[in-house]
Structure formats: C-alpha cells, structure tokens
Amino acid sequence: MKMTQEVVIIIAEDDDGHARLIENSLRRVGLHNAIHRCGNGQEALDFLFRRGPGPHRTSDTPYLLMLDIRMPKVDGVETLRQIKEDPSLRKLPVIMLTTTDDPREIERCHLLGCNNYIVKPVDFGKFAEAIAQLGMFVSLVQVPEINDAPLISSCQSPKRQ
C-alpha cells in the first residue's frame, strides 16, 4: 500500500515580497507543505520539464502550481500553455495568482487549462487575506500525481494518531 504523500506547492512569482507574503500566509492557515519557489516562468518550466542544472520535480511527488502572469523570461500564460500541452504535465493543477484582472486574460488562461484564476488585491492586508483563503481552499483540494498516476489525498498530511 502506497503511503499518502504531501503536495509540494510551486510558487512561480518574480516579486520576492509577493512570494514571501504568499508563503507566510499559507503557513498562517496551517499549510506546512514543502514549497518550491521559481523566480520566473523559465525556472518553473525547467523544474517541471527536468531541464538544465537546477532542481527538478520527481515522478512520485504530487505538485500544485501557483503561477503569476507578469514575469520575466517566460510569462505565466506561456508557462501555462506549455504545461497543459504536455501529456505528462497536463493534470498538474495550476492556480493563476496575478494582479491582472483583464477579462480577456482570465478567459485565455481558462481556455489554456488553468484550474483557478485569482486576482491579487493591491492592498497588503486584503492580499494577505486572499492568500489565507486560498490556503484553506488548497488544504481541501484533491491533487493528482502527474505522469498518469492515480488520484491521491489532499494537500495537508493526515494527522498522526
């Protein structure tokens, strides 16, 4: 019997302050999952597609990607497109987390296969609150392993008795 594995949260965000705020807000709501930070879309793609010299995803680990749109090198929309076009990665849950509230951009991301699209509030307190709510949502989400593996448990590890 395979043991339940905890989801690794990938945060692809070029703004260090936003990335720290996302991570801290997730921790405050009780998510203690491993977090892998990517500073741009190219780093996220290299991690997921196992390219280049940096760290790479492992086949037996479930992941969830929080993806900003406005990033250098490869933007979030192109990153999303490449992920969802790949047969081994298309089941990866992707949450767009961005300041862009353009309805055309929202539609485009959904057509490309994003699972959720969340607009980051400009106000610091509201941003932290939105991330906290996202953390509660993430703790309940069922995330499939990529590489056509079966569905596994939610993001939070089961409580030890």
Description:
The chain is of the alpha/beta class and 161 residues long. The protein has a single domain, classed as Rossmann fold (3-Layer(aba) Sandwich). 35% of the residues lie in helices and 19% in strands. It has five helices and seven strands. It has helices at residues 16-28, 41-49, 76-85, 103-112, 124-138, and strands spanning 8-12, 35-38, 63-67, 94-98, 116-119, 142-144, 151-154. The strands form two sheets. Strands 2-1-3-4-5 form a five-stranded parallel β-sheet, sandwiched between helices. Helix 1 (16-28) crosses helix 5 and helix 2 (41-49) packs parallel to helix 3 (76-85). The longest helix has 15 residues, at 124-138. The chain is globular and about 35 Å long. 29% of the residues are buried. Mean pLDDT is 82; it is low at 148-161.
Sheet with most strands: strand arrangement: 2-1-3-4-5
Instruction: Please state the overall shape, judged from the principal axes of the Cα atoms.
Output: globular
Overall residue-averaged pLDDT value: 82
* Count of DSSP-assigned helices: 5
Secondary-structure arrangement, i.e. CATH architecture: 3-Layer(aba) Sandwich
Low-confidence stretches: 148-161
Q: Kindly provide the name of the CATH class.
A: Alpha Beta
Kindly name the structural category.
alpha/beta
Task: Tell me the count of domains.
Answer: 1
Which fold name corresponds to the CATH topology?
Answer: Rossmann fold
The oligomeric state of the chains shown is single chain
Q: Major sheet: size, sense and barrel closure?
A: 5 strands, parallel
Topology pattern, helix = H, strand = E? EHEHEHEHEHEE
What would CATH call the homologous superfamily? Response regulator
- Strand proportion: 15-25%
Please report the distance between the alpha carbons of the first and last residues. 19 Å
